[in-house]
TrEMBL record:
Domain Alcohol dehydrogenase-like C-terminal: 197-300
Species in which this protein is naturally found: Komagataeibacter europaeus
Annotated Alcohol dehydrogenase-like N-terminal domain residues: 36-145
Keyword Transcription on entry: no
Protein name: Glutathione-independent formaldehyde dehydrogenase
Amino acid sequence: MGTNRGVVYLGPEHVEVQDIADPKMETPTGRRITHGVILKVVSTNICGSDQHMVRGRTTAPKGMVLGHEITGEVIECGSDVEMIRKGDLVSVPFNVACGRCRCCREGDTGVCLTVNPGRAGGAYGYVDMGGWIGGQAKYVMVPYADFNLLRFADRSMAMERIRDLTMLTDILPTGFHGAVTARVGVGSVVYVAGAGPVGMAAAASARILGAAVVMVGDLNEERLAHARKVGFEAVDLRQHDRLGDMVAQIAGTPEVDSFIDAVGFEAKGYGGNAKPAIVLNQAMEVTRPAGSVGIPGLYVTEDPGGADEAAKTGNLILRFGQGWARSLEFHTGQTPVLRYNARLMNAILHGRLPIADIVNATVIPLEDAPQGYRDFDSGAAKKFVLDPHGMLAA
């Protein structure tokens, strides 16, 4: 296996690539398992959710190995693994899911009931998600392998599109989930809040689902320019704070059918000030009566850097009466990746969804991860893909 290296969170604004322990076939509590596999990590991505932790906006403990977006090659299988074989190239959903509990059996793998003693739902390398070791590393262990892993049947075809396929672990299914739960369909008028990678994935998903107009709003000119470049209507939120007026300039009406919040709790308003509830309030303002709001953006229960005392405990000031009066539909929570990733894989392999170009996938070595975090935090219009073994570069 060789020396394992991983991206380790050492405190706010501080990550380092360090030697870390080799993965073991055991749970975070040390219980031995036989249903897992060890992966040689082919690609692993920096996510905006990781950035929340690195900014110090969560209660993440120092020493955590980060990373929940993992694509890898199986190098070892537990004795109870039946469907996955050594040498398989696989995509790992960011959800850790048992496949056996009520939620998993009903397809709600984002809130598995058994893999996290603290709450429903588990994930790799993320605060309060069960303690599973992250995959921004050279090697990682994945439990419940037969249930969780998506195998790429044709390895050579997969490697040709690996920059696209690496997005199947999280951001593409998350953006797609946002669009599906916002009820995007043929002819929909759609507004996506946030031109980061998840927002761009949501916009791409809206387009493949048949939307007539897809608007993407942001305060970052570089990201807005990229959104325009790949064919979406850019809404520059630096202009003023009347979102309905800006929507009307593009769509001819101040309302949309579907609203997707890809920003979450670190939202900022006109002028750049922290306003954690602004996107949700805008959703209730511009979504038409009986319209739908998908919320793939992350909202946390504890935010040490919150704008006020309420925000520090996840309490937001919402004009919820407006949403109620309009009979709006809201959908929140972790994306159940397994619900979507096989179909999205086919869309990628058959040339229907060039997601790497849409999110501007940028491959860097694992050892350059700290710089990738800094660049991403500065607002770069890129999705950083880490290449632990040089397989993407090759």
